[in-house]
Each structure stands twice: as C-alpha cells, then as structure tokens.
Amino acid sequence: MSQHIVVIGGVALGPKAACRFKRLEPGSTVTMIDQSSLISYGGCGIPYYVSGDVSDAVQLSQTTFHMTRDPKFFKEVKGVDVQILTKATRIDREKKLVEVENVQTGEKGTISYDKLVIATGASPRHLGLPGEDLEGVNYVCNPADAIRIRESISKGDVGKAVIIGAGFIGLEMAEAYADMWGVETSVVEIADQIMPRLVSPVLATMGQKHMEENGVDFYFGETVKSIEGEDGKVTRVITSKRTLDADAVIVSAGVVPMSDIAKDAGLKVHERGGVYVDEFMRTNDPDIYAGGDCCIVKNLITKGDAFLPLGSMANRQGRIIGNNLAGGDSKFDGVVGSFVVKMFETSLAGTGLTLEAAKAAGFDAISVLLIQLDRAHFYPTKDLMTLEMVVEKGTRRVLGVQGFGSSGDAMVGRINAVAAALKSDPVVEDISNMELAYSPPFAAAMDILNALANLADNALRNINRGVSPDGFKELWDNRESGQCYFVDCRELPDAEPFLEKNPEYWHNIPQGEIYNRIKEIPEDKTVVLVCNTGARSYEAQIMLDEKGIKDVVNIHGGMAAIKKYGVDI
Fold it and tell me: Angle between the 13-24 and 311-325 helix axes, to the nearest 10 degrees?
C-alpha cells in the first residue's frame, strides 16, 4: 500500500531519506518542505568557497554530474515533491497533519502524512551581542552567506577580520581570510585553546603555532562584549581585554539543534535541544523519525548522549530512515565522535575521547603522545606526524586517538582506522597488532599507529615513564631549582647547539654511552631524558632502570614535539 511521507527540512538528511525511500517505494508519495529557497547544499564546503578552493557557489548545490539540486531536479529526477519557502509551524500528531505557512505570503495550510521525518537541522548560536546586526557581521550557514562574505572580500572591503570562536568553522574561515585573501585575521576564543574539548592542549598548541606562522592571531580566555560600527557597518570588536579593528566579523560560536517543533508536538527532546531517537531513528512517536543536526544520538564510548552536527552522519542516518520508512529494520547504533579540520598545510583530527573528556566521563585514563614519520624513513616525501592515544588503565581499553599532521590523507587515514575499531571496544593490543596496508611511499614497516599503541603498552607497564612537551616545559621552566638533570641522548652534533646555549643545565650522553658514563648521572635528581622523538630516550630509560636509577622522565615526542609545541630552549 502506498504511503505519503512528509519530510521537514531539505538540506542533508531530508533529501537523503526522501530519495532513498522513493527508490524502495516508487509508488509512494514524498513531500519535502523547507523554509528556505536553498536546499540540498554542502554547508561544510562554505569556507572553501570563501577561500577560493571551490570556484563557484553553485557547486555546493550540484550533483557529481553537475545537475543543480533544486525543486525541479527533485521532482523530475527523484520523484520527490518539494515546497520551498514553506515553514512547518506545528505538528498535529493525533490528526497526522503538519501545519505550514508560506514565508513570503503568509498563506497557511496543512499537509497530511502517514509517516513524518523531522530534518530541521541546527542554526548558528547567536550570542545576543550589541552590533550583531551590523553590515559585515556574518554567520556561516548557507550558500547565500558564502556569496555575501566572498563578494565583500573580492571588492576590497575587508582588510581586517575577526573570527569569534576557534572551532571547526572558526579555524576554516580564519584560513580562508588569511591564506587566499591576505586579510589580517584575528580569532577570539573564550576557552584557553583552539578546538576546545576536541583535542588536548598539546595538539591544540601545535595547531595554533602553525596558524600563527601563517598570519592568524589568537586571543584566548576572552569574551566578546560588543560589536561596534559606523554608518551601519562594523568597524571594531570589543572583548573583555582589548579592542580589535574589523571590517568583517564571523560569529562561529557553535550551533543549536532546531527541535522546537518536535518539543511543541510532545516528542522527547533534550533539555538543551535535540530530538531523542532510538536505534531505528524513531522518536517516541513510532510514525515520526528524526535525524541529522536536530537530533541526539548515543555516544558508544560513554553510553551517554551525543550531539554531532556533521553532514556525513546526516547522510548515513538519512539512508537508514529511508530504509525504515519502507518497512526495513536498519539501525544506527551511535557515534564515537570523529572529525578532521584543515589548517593551511596541516590538520587536526580525532576520534573518541580526549584525556580531559575521558576523565570527565569517569574513566581512569592516561594519554601518550608519539611523533614519528608517516612513511618509511628513507622515502623522500616523508613527514612527521603527531598522534596521541587515550587509554583506560585497568582494562587497557583504547578510548580515543587524536592527531596533528599534514593536510594530506596520511593522518586522517590512521584516525579513520581507529574510528572503525572503537565501536568494538578495542584494547591496546588490538591497535598494536592492527593490520594496515604497507609500502614505503605510504607507511613505515612498523606503522605509527602500531607504534603508538606499543608506547601506550609500555606506559601502562610503567617501563616508559614520561610526559608530553607541556610537561617538559614545566620542568624546563623550573630548571633553576636544580631538581632536574637534563640529558640529551642524541649524538653530539645534534646536542651541541643546546649545550652551547645552556651549558649549566643541558648535558649530552648519547644513548649508546649510558652504561660507560653512568657515573655522570646524579642519583639525587630527577633525570629528564630527551632525544629526537622519544625512542632513544626510552631505550636510555630502560638502561638506567637496569642500573637502579628510577627517578627518570622520558619526554614523549622528544625534540620534535618540543619544537612544534613552541618551547624556547
């Protein structure tokens, strides 16, 4: 028997669910409504249109075969009826009606449904600041925003830009302004790092340093008090600590799920917004489904609630909903939380929990950091990659991996491998022995991911006792106390510049000479071992342990991590 499916929302999940269902039930009717005139676009591509990487905004709304996904396309190619500029105002669950209103004419009407899909998405978080309505102040939401932002830059109207928020969109827009257009760009962030809650302070600092090297300034721990302008156009941003001149402002303070219509209909909604769904993407009304940026899903690691506004998840959920509308039983179990963000020639990526998030969730966890080449050491295009793993102590369960590296596919490939495994609660040995494709142009024989898990294993066994570069900085900043004895385990040519700069504190005993020079190492001080990446210093730590010297700290990531972190030795 044919059905009438109504879909509220036409950006990501809505079109996917509608089209999947129509393929399974061509004889049924699907009506998709959206309050905008722009539908089915790739919102995550907006910063790359602003930067010029995407040449034409219409590409954000096109198929791979260059057809624009407009109402005519959906009707003729997909068999889906689309009503744009139509806002859903109320859901009558008893009568199975959606009340709608034309946003231009105010004309009202109703649409009956057999089953309903709520795909209302999320909206940019408004901060309620004075001056948010000034010309030149923008949110990054749809292709119209992208066109307006890029036109203002290309006209030469923007010399200085201020980005509010150092999350995904904030960093991507900062790169777009600074890289392509040479705009003097500043980022204001209320937290004390970029990508707060998503990466550790160490990885965040590495990413921040790289962006600063490319002309982006950061101001952390500051709140924006107001946005000011002249003649209706923005001219400055006032924070809790300074005034920043600005010809353009991007507000990227996160997004809020648009779930009010679901709440008003009596559907179960999170207290901060977001529709609750089960594993079949159903709400507490079996005839109403929801997904994408407007819903709450399960975090497969913490077993708690998760809000993950990503186009990739919305598309996967859309297929599941389409299947189930046609009588299927497809499941969406939940998420582990995976991401990647490009920052000039580098990127930050991660999956699962950071150490901070793991502890907040009640896990007794540690983290280890490793820097290693992303391919064979003899291959000419090798590059250093930094990975950090979070592990639960007692169970040895891997809770997450985050990384900082080049903007190519090498690092995100490792992150994706772990993301696929996290759903099955892997332990350290699972990653240590993970099978990965190998060839010198693509990986080392002992892949960095395997080596990272081996480092975690050694740390859990307490035979590699170390700290990351932030821990080294704390030790180095207190060097005048005389409590630490810093030993460079590299050969003399590598260590010599640091011996010359810090003759009182820096000492050089190559790892291979430890046994012969053991008497040079004091037993009444904490011995801090450093090498290029932390490998030889780990070997030195083992040798000192064997000789009974136990108060030893190995610097994970070595001088490579210290340099990326920005410690001045």
Answer: 30
Answer yes or no: do 486 and 521 share one domain.
yes
Q: Identify the CATH number of the domain in which residue 215 sits.
A: 3.50.50.60
Contact present, 340 and 403 (Cβ < 8 Å): no
**DSSP for 356-407, written as a single string:** HHHHHTT--EEEEEEEEESS-TTSTT--EEEEEEEEETTT-BEEEEEEEEES
Task: Please state the domain count of the chain.
Answer: 4
Q: What angle do CA 119, 121, 122 make, to 5 degrees?
A: 160
Dihedral angle sign, alpha carbons of residues 281, 282, 287, 292: negative
Interval 72-124: pLDDT, tens: 999 999 999 999 999 999 999 999 999 999 999 999 999 999 999 999 999 99
Q: Are 78 and 22 in contact (CB under 8 A)?
A: yes
Residue ending a domain, among 426, 459, 492, is 459
Q: What whole-number distance in Å separates Cα of residue 471 and Cα of residue 474? A: 5
Task: Look at residue 525 and give its three-state secondary structure.
Answer: coil
Which residue's structure tokens are 């966890």?
Answer: 365
Count other C-beta atoms under 10 Å from residue 100's C-beta. 22
CA–CA distance, 251 with 181 (Å, rounded to integer): 19
Q: Residue 93 has which token pair?
A: 């669950």
Closest CA to 321 of 330, 333, 312: 330
One domain for residues 437 and 362: yes
Burial of 140 (0-12, 13-18, 19+ CB in 10 A): buried
**What is the rounded distance in angstroms from the CA atom of residue 237 to the CA atom of residue 177?**
17
Instruction: Say whether both 264 and 296 belong to one domain.
Output: yes
For the stretch 297-318, pLDDT in tens is: 999 999 999 999 999 999 999 9
Identify the three-state secondary structure at position 492: helix
Q: Considering Cα of 285, then 291, then 296, then 301, what sign does the dihedral take?
A: positive
Distance from the Cα of residue 555 to its chain's centroid: 27
- The confidence score (pLDDT) of residue 218 equals 98
In 51-124, where do the E strands start and end? Answer: 81-83, 86-92, 97-102, 108-112, 115-118, 122-124
Query: Domain range for residue 154?
Result: 137-253
H or E stretch including 149? helix 143-154
CA–chain centroid gap for 211, Å, is 16
User: Rounded CA gap, 416 and 513, in Å?
Assistant: 41
For residue 176, what are its two tokens?
């777009």
> Contact, 27 vs 135, CB < 8 A?
no
Same-domain status, 301 and 364: no
Sequence length of the chain is 569
Token pair of 49 as six digits: 């249109």
Question: Which residues, 6+ apart, have CB-to-CB distance to 237 below 8 Å?
Answer: 162, 164, 188, 224, 226, 227, 228, 243, 244, 246, 249
Which alpha helices (H) appear in 336-408, and where do they start and end? 355-360
CB count in 10 Å sphere of residue 70: 15
Q: Read off the pTM.
A: 0.93
Hey, what's the torsion of the CAs at 68, 72, 74, 75, to 10 degrees?
Answer: -160
